[in-house]
Amino acid sequence: MMRGTRGNRAGEPHRMRREDAGSSRPIRCLAVEPRHQSGASAIEFGLLAPLLLIMLTGVVEVGIASYQAMQVQAAVEAGILYAIQNVPTSITPISAAFSSAIITAVQNATGTPGITATPVPLAFCGCPSTTAGTGVVSQVNDCTTKCADGTAPGQYVTVSAALSHQTIMPYLNLHLPATLTASSTVRLQ
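Above: the chain's sequence. Below: its structure in token form.
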């Protein structure tokens, strides 16, 4: 008889091949009844849910603060745009009507309630910095005084806005500013 094959000799029952007999043992060993895990997923979710909610709340908090900061910047840009489009003949000293109109433009620029034009718009005469590319304007007391480069000073306006930010969950310690602010200065003339 050949080894590893089924034989059919008289008096001998059919035998399984040796490979089949060896491979059936592990299957019998694994036939142990499986453990019940009916509540394991619920327990794992119950342990992780608070952590996931805290992380989600932090992401939402940062998102809201970022959105509000963009709204404050947009309000400043609206105030600057109004000032550029409605330049009076002389802005220094700034008239109450011009200042009030800029404040109204800032407050009505976005749908976000609570944005204020703080501090109030400031008009001044100034000279650009002698250092190229710095964007710094030095304020001069008299609009007739010449700048260091011999040119006449320009008339500038600074518009600022602020919004008080309320946190959703203050105990998260995200170190977000309590007041979101933005400011911009532009030369009008």
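The chain is about 40% helix and 15% strand.
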